[in-house]
Design goal:
Arc Repressor Mutant, subunit A, three-stranded parallel β-sheet, 4 helices, 42% helix
Length: 93
């Protein structure tokens, strides 16, 4: 089985590739990490910005000039671990 960091990297890459936002909580639940660990593990890069805060639907710790316009192109945010698991099964890398 892949380690959690590798799973996280693959999930975040799939989210970015498909311009799909998911909350830290949903990602953390799927990978099996605390949500704060997910935030700390993600790089502040274009892939990591697809993992967002539940309330704001924005990534944490990014300045406005770091956010890509594509982030606004999809208002859909996956907030449920179960829904994210199903989505990932249909959108693997």
């Amino acid at each position: 089985m892949k380690d959690k960091q590798e799973q996280l990297a693959q999930l975040v890459a799939a989210l970015a590739k498909n311009t799909q936002k998911a909350t830290y909580t949903a990602v953390a639940g799927l990978i099996g990490l605390p949500a704060r660990t997910v935030m700390n593990a993600l790089l502040k890069d274009p892939q990591g910005e697809w993992v967002v805060a539940k309330q704001s639907h924005q990534p944490t710790g990014y300045s406005t000039n770091q956010l890509r316009p594509q982030l606004k192109s999809n208002s859909s945010v996956i907030a449920s671990t179960a829904v994210l698991a199903s989505w990932w099964g249909k959108h693997p890398l």
